[in-house]
Amino acid sequence: MTRCNFGGCRVEEYSSFWRWIVDFLTLYVFGCYELLRQLISSSYPHARHCEPAPPSGFGGTNSLILLTGCSTGIGYELLKQLLAAELDVVAITHNQDAGLPRKCKQVVVDFGSTSSTENGCITLSGIVEELGAKRPVILVHCAAVLHPKTNANYSASTIVTRTLTINLLMPMLFVKRLSELLSGIVWIGSSTQYIAPNLFDSQCPMHVAKTPFSAYPLSKLLAFVFAERWSIINSKPVVVIHPGVVATGLYRDERGLVGKILRRMMPFFAWTPAFSARRILQLVSYGGFFHHLEKRFDPSGAPQGSIPVYWDSVTMGPGLLPLQILDQGQRNKIAEALSHITERRMASERSSASSMD
pTM of this prediction? Predict the structure, then answer.
């Protein structure tokens, strides 16, 4: 057992052998089951149903889009399609060398660092004031997908801490710093519904996030809860989207016959990032979530009226997303978990600052 960096809670430290077993069961057995289930599902949408979406879905062509996670995968495809629709996009990336199109502004924000996140918010505030005067400003958050497979060199407790920080705490800080400038949010994330039942049986959320593979979906679920609460508090529209199973380099590092078989299977069962991006834009455009912003935008910077938070699971149907089937007590439990983790993080940072002094 090792002490979690958030303090007070303990997480299991698996040997490399057991971590390999967990990896196999999680990625292969459950992953193949999920892909097969989606393929068989009668509600599975096909590419021909996802035509390019009109830019009016984002409050009209006058909107300014702040897009995170656009270096690769779904985020990169969203960037290309938004630029093709002639929308103004500010690309928010983890590093400067992202190979992005020249016609969009780029801001570097490392969600693993508090200082980088805060500095990025200052830069973005200046850009929004320059480009976004009297126009809708919509954040499309598609970043912070830190899967355990990308952290093989870290200990289990470190992975848990990094996952909760990058997927949850820094995006929360990011949104809070920009709240007054934002007109609405599209929050994209995955792997949330599988952790929900375990969360309600545990007194401490860190007990749920005791392994890297459980910390990942927990961070996504809590981030979705934060987005919902932000919408209610600020009376601004939020669309929360589960993108489904998307083959963004999945199994590319697996060697041998197993790796070849899995890579060959992916195109048959999973979506490409480009198709998922089209589906997301279609849902936002035709859902009417931001249509009111262009016509009813207050020059003071706040949209008049609000739209309830909308949850959608593009492959599995909205009924399977956990927050649509939770009672008030369960929602309160999730809110408590969110506060618990935030307090742990703040206490940890205060302790680190005191030790440096």
Answer: 0.73
What are the DSSP E strand ranges found in the chain? 2-3, 10-11, 64-68, 88-93, 105-108, 137-141, 184-188, 238-242, 310-313
Structural domains of the chain, with CATH? 2-356 (3.40.50.720)
Question: How many CB atoms neighbour CB 301 within 10 A?
Answer: 16
Long-range contacts of 109-117 (CB under 8 A, 24+ apart): 109/68, 109/174, 111/143, 111/144, 111/165, 111/166, 111/167, 111/170, 111/171, 111/174, 112/162, 112/165, 112/166, 112/170, 113/170, 114/170, 114/173, 114/349, 117/170, 117/173, 117/174, 117/177
Q: Using 50, 70 and 90 to split pLDDT, how confident is the model at 238? A: confident
* The two structure tokens encoding residue 181: 């400038």
Predicted confidence at residue 321, as pLDDT, reads 40
pLDDT at 134 over 70: yes
Kindly tell me if the per-residue pLDDT of 41 is higher than 60: no
